[in-house]
Structures are given as C-alpha cells and as structure tokens.
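ok so for the tutorial part 2 we go from a plain amino acid sequence to predicted structure tokens. step 1 is just haveing the sequence, like this:
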Amino acid sequence: MLVLVLGDRLANANGLVNLSTNLIVRIGQSSVILETNGNYKFANPAEFWQRIWKDDTNGWRVQLCLQTNGFNSNPVLRVECGNVLINSGGGYLRSPNGKFAKFELRNANGDIIVPKPNAGTNLLKDVYFDQGYGTVQPVWAISPNGAMEQSFPPTILTNVYPKYPQCANCGIVGYISVGKDSPPALLNLLNVDDLYSITNEGIYTLCVQPIIYKQRLDFFPASREKLMEILEKQGHDNVASYISNGVYFVNTNATDPALHRVDLPSVTTKIHLIPNVK
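step 2 — the prediction. this is what the tokens look like for a chain of 278 residues:
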C-alpha cells in the first residue's frame, strides 16, 4: 500500500490508475489526480456536490449538509458555497458576523418557528473555534435580539471584520477560497438545537440564503521584469504577488478596503426535527 501525504492529509492509494502518467488517489471522499510535476488537482469536482444545493446563472452554488454528531437531538447544519464557473476565487469573505440574508424554519402548517433570543449572537463560533471576534462591531452588524437574518449593505469596509486576537499580523478573519475545481468553502456550522426550541416532532422546511463579500483583486500573471516595473510605479504597499511554476501572479489592488456584497442562491430543504425542550 502506498501512502501519499498531500497538504496535511493522508490518503491510501488503493485505486491507482494510469500508472504511466498520473496517479489517482482518494483523499477523504474526493478523487485526486497526482500530476507528474508534483502538483495535484481534484479529478471529479461533482463529488463535492452530493447534498442539497442550488446554483444561479453566475455559477454560484450553495449547499446544505445535515449531519448528526451523536450529542444533540437534532442535526448540525453545514452551509457551504462555491462557484462552478470561475477558475479561482481569491478575495472572498464570509459575512463578518455569520448572519444570513434569509434563514427561515417553518413547521408542517407553514408557521414560522421563531429562533431562540440569542440564536444569532455568535454564529461563527464553531467555524473559528471561538476565536477571531473583535470587541467592536459596526452598528449595522449588531443584532440585540439575536436574529439570524440581517440586511447587509452593498459595500462595506474591511475594518468591520474582526482580526485574529492572538496574531497581530494575520490580518482579518473570514477569507474563503472558491473555484470550479475546488471543494466548496465552509460558511457556517450550526447546531439546530442551539438555534431553535423544538416542541413537536415533524417535517419542517428550512430556507437558507447566505451572503459573502468580495474584495476587488486585480490578479494577473506577469514576468519578474513586469512585476519589478509595477512595483516601481505603484509602490510595494499596493502590490502583492506570489509565484507559481515560474509565473508571478500580481495583485495591484492589495490595499483597497472596499468589499462588495455577493448575493448567493437561496436553498430550501425538508428537515426532520424532534423535540429538544424538556
């Protein structure tokens, strides 16, 4: 058995094919092509979308995954997003407080189930493991009643995002990466029992619409000579770059603090819930 280390994950290479060129291995639930140059890519991106999802004409896709953890009466909800059209998606961020454009639960009679009073006060705690929250939030991001939903402005600034409290140079919290050949990004991980007091067993209807924000990144490939020219004209403070396979990828908008809202698709699913109130 051949064991390959990719990133920080191990995969048992028990299904190798096309041995003369590239190897295909399994990492978790995904098939990965190990290329001869040492890089790897996912062999079948459709494997990422096996749950309840919906997309829009711009390629944005939202997926809901209902999981059980053995400790709670009702499922844990994993909210993911991705884009099946764009090649790469740097500069995207979760909503700064984890709230949604729409998050609605209805019972079999169509009645809206009101969330717990504090349901929306700390929605990202399981994503960031209780780290990353600043002490000051802008007025528009404060929800005294713990609502799950919020009306997000079309444009915000990066200073509304919290910073990692234990790392002064790590920047703001919330960046995600999306791309058509990449796994979906985790937006929220929510315990339904933390959000709602369920008194009656039954089939409920859950409707979820998240939002994300995008920083305008002007990434483009360039030679080292072109990069030096750009740095000389625009200054080091407004240019970021990285190198891949000998090609420099340059961002000439690195210090722009403006973030623009991206409205994602709304997804509706049925969910079986049991009482969690004694």
